[in-house]
Specification:
The protein is α+β, with helices and mostly antiparallel strands and 733 residues long. The protein has three domains: 434 residues, Multidrug efflux transporter AcrB transmembrane domain (Multidrug efflux transporter AcrB transmembrane fold, Up-down Bundle); 92 residues, Multidrug efflux transporter AcrB pore domain (Alpha-Beta Plaits, 2-Layer Sandwich); 113 residues, 2-Layer Sandwich (Alpha-Beta Plaits). It contains 23 helices and 13 strands. It has a six-stranded antiparallel beta sheet, sandwiched between helices. Strands 2-3-1-5-4 form a five-stranded antiparallel beta sheet, sandwiched between helices.
């Protein structure tokens, strides 16, 4: 690759440009291929109930709502005729089931508003979430708007998911338009010149274009949630800039020693290039833990995160060295007098060296104080309440949110909040079971094949409308709550599941699906964490040759997240700063947010850990002195880690431009985690811990030493010959 670049550099760059452009064009229809949702567990009880309901009964959970408003009243003959015809047309649509309305025979008056001017038509759209998302757009265009004397607005869970996709596309474009110029301006301060500052932006742009094209190709094989594309875009931008920053800084340092451009590129790739490769592996490992979760929204983040990490590292390790080789010393062209790069201090005199030396004189008190501060900042997370996003996660201008709020305000209940209990093995005992379900607190009525029930008694004998609830050997029951309050609905779902059934029962519906999804997150978390920790320990051992430092790195990286998780609860659950940030307080956190935020933030923390440990290792291999290696390693890489942390934080602030509440959480959580890690953890905690441990930081048992000698990674570059393991092994106790 190096020789090809040296001889055919411009031609290779032209091929790269064409490929990136082609992938960018391919991604232009990406948002037509992704979908909203992905927050339910298809293998959970509610997921299996939904599948049986669709396959055995040809029915779907009520996920499509038409809010019908008339100028007169819902009982006006002209309005009733028009609304009945609207319901009939909807019932005849393919893949639409269970159409009920205020004007349908046998339906409860609760589907009319308290002022008598509005009524509801509720239906279910058949299919998986991806299919429902594609169908609901066409139905909304067809049925929303003016129909004679009726004004019709579209809502329901299916519409919520559809509008989430539309909002995600707008947010992705807005986030990029904010992040790119701010990042370029910050890079000018870091490098002091237009040429050097533009290179990370070029690498980031190519990375994002290829990533979006890769995600389009990925949709040919798996479903992807729309919100993953937002994260992939900004994460790709941030990682590409981080990796470029490290490589460019090392290249300029090699040039400063008098090396020719070709040699400088070789030495840079042997040192910073290998560090970037290892750093990308740690980020990929952290994100791969998301693939264990059954929720598509979480898995999509894993797919997109892995793709963007590989692409960011690949572009940084291939395209960037080509450009550096062609530029050579011209990388310092375009220096701006008003952006002056600070002169490099003499060895041993820089800020980071002085800070490390100060900390290592008082390692125990400083380490304990910093750890106590971080734990204190994390205490709000002890009161976390997990939930799942609803219409309040979208801006107030979105149609579905407005419809939902009108329904909650003007209607006592709606069939759109119904639960359904599926008896897949038997249709006997329905009467007694329905009576028991109708006695559950906050249940208004129960419909099944044997009729409708309320408060333990008959409400209506079975009609033609009730036939859909049963087959020869199976049945299901629709349980209609008398409220639209999310907290009460969660309790109703739990109470319904607790009622003894005559045979095996599966309870579904939105409230039940949310409860199953939270259980899935909690039950999967130990496996995912165990995988990430074990693989991360192996990767860091291959980097350092120590069994101690990998443990230290993981614990310290976890410490860097305490403030982030505390802030999530304090801001988004408890509602502080909701006014300035522009979101609606729900009193809980979506269960997927801490999981996804942990994966990205922990991966980035380990990313910077690799940056720092690689440089400390280089110094330790050269001198064999632990404290000196920490001080000089931090001095040489501290400025770059700080710059990288600031730059990627500026990128992640683009999430704050999102109008989806849980995406704003990334805009707060990720910058906070990165900055805490790059300052308090790397500047104070790591030197404290490594001073206390001394040479034992680098210890490994003899057999593992031999394993590392054969398979491990040693930082190369212009360092003097490395000392042997025996020379730097701590004395045995």
């Amino acid at each position: 690759m190096f020789e090809l670049t040296r001889r055919r550099g411009r031609q290779v760059l032209a091929v790269f440009a064409v490929f990136a452009l082609a992938m960018g064009i391919l991604s232009s229809t990406l948002f037509d291929r992704v979908h909203g949702g992905g927050y339910s567990d298809p293998g959970g009880e509610s997921g299996r109930a939904t599948e049986i309901l669709r396959d055995e009964f040809g029915q779907a959970a009520p996920n499509f709502v038409l809010l019908v408003q008339t100028e007169k009243s819902v009982d006006d003959p002209e309005s009733a005729t028009a609304a009945t015809e609207l319901a009939r047309r909807l019932k005849n649509e393919p893949d639409v089931s269970g159409v009920v309305s205020y004007w349908t025979e046998g339906t409860q008056p609760s589907l009319a508003s308290s002022d008598g001017a509005k009524g509801l038509i509720v239906a279910g759209i058949l299919g998986a979430e991806a299919d429902v998302d594609r169908k609901v757009g066409a139905l909304a265009d067809k049925y929303g708007g003016r129909h004679g004397v009726l004004d019709v607005r579209v809502g329901g869970y299916a519409m919520l998911l559809h509008e989430t996709v539309e909002q995600s596309e707008r947010d992705a474009i807005l986030g990029e338009s904010i992040a790119f110029p701010i990042t370029l301006l910050a890079l000018l301060f870091v490098f002091g010149g237009l040429v050097a500052a533009s290179l990370p932006v070029v690498v980031a742009l190519v990375t994002v274009m290829i990533t979006m094209g890769a995600l389009w190709l990925l949709t040919l094989f798996v479903d992807l949630a729309a919100t993953a594309t937002n994260v992939a875009t900004l994460l790709g931008l941030g990682l590409a800039i981080d990796y470029s920053l490290l490589i460019i800084n090392r290249f300029r340092a090699e040039l400063a020693t008098g090396a020719q451009p070709a040699r400088a590129v070789r030495l840079t790739m042997r040192s910073a290039g290998r560090t970037v490769a290892f750093a990308a592996v740690t980020v990929g490992v952290a994100l791969s833990g998301l693939l264990f979760f059954p929720l598509l929204a979480v898995r999509s983040m894993g797919y997109a995160g892995l793709a963007v990490t590989v692409i960011a590292a690949t572009v940084s390790l291939t395209l960037l060295p080509m450009i550096l080789l062609l530029l050579g010393s011209r990388i310092d062209n375009g220096q701006l007098g008003w952006f002056l790069r600070a002169p490099r201090p003499a060895p041993g005199e820089g800020f980071w060296h002085r800070l490390a030396t100060f900390v290592m004189r008082r390692p125990v008190p400083i380490g304990l104080v910093v750890a106590a501060i971080l734990l204190l900042l994390g205490t709000p997370f002890l009161g976390v309440k997990l939930g799942f996003p609803d219409e309040r996660a979208l801006p107030e201008s979105m149609n579905n949110r407005q419809v939902t709020e009108i329904v909650q305000r003007d209607f006592t209940a709606t069939d759109a909040t119904s639960l359904f209990a599926v008896l897949p093995d038997s249709a006997t005992g329905l009467d007694d079971y329905a009576r028991k379900l109708s006695q559950v607190e906050n249940v208004q009525r129960v419909d099944t094949a044997t009729g409708s029930y309320s408060h333990g008694g008959f409400l209506a004998l079975p009609t033609e409308q009730h036939k859909r609830f049963g087959t020869a050997d199976a049945a299901y029951l629709a349980v209609h709550p008398d409220t639209t309050d999310p907290d009460i609905l969660d309790r109703v779902a739990s109470d319904v599941r607790a009622v003894p059934a005559p045979s095996r029962v599966l309870v579904g519906g939105t409230a039940a699906a949310n409860a199953d999804a939270i259980d899935a997150v909690k039950s999967t978390l130990p496996t995912a964490l165990g995988f990430v920790v074990i693989v991360m320990l192996i990767v860091l051992f291959l980097l350092t040759g120590s069994v101690v430092l990998p443990l230290v790195a993981i614990v310290l990286s976890a410490f860097s997240l305490t403030a982030t998780f505390g802030a999530l609860v304090w801001i988004f659950q408890d509602g502080h700063l909701s006014g300035p940030l522009g979101f609606t307080v729900t009193g809980d956190l979506p269960a997927t947010v801490p999981v996804m935020l942990f994966a990205v933030a922990f991966g980035l923390a380990m990313d910077y850990q690799v940056f720092l440990l690689s440089r400390i290792l280089e110094e330790y291999e050269r001198t064999g002195k632990n404290e000196s290696a920490v001080a000089f390693g931090l001095e040489r890489i501290g400025r770059i880690i700080t710059a990288a942390a600031v730059l990627i934080s500026l990128v992640f602030l683009g999430f704050l431009a999102s109008d989806i509440t849980f995406m704003k959480a990334f805009g707060i959580g990720l910058p906070l985690a990165v900055l805490v890690d790059a300052t308090l953890v790397r500047g104070l905690l790591l030197p404290s811990v490594m001073t206390v441990l001394g040479d034992w930081s680098w210890w490994a048992p003899g057999p593992l030493e031999k394993l590392h000698a054969r398979f491990g990674f040693d930082e190369g570059g212009a360092a003097p010959p490395m000392r042997s393991r025996d020379e730097r092994r701590p004395a045995r106790v």
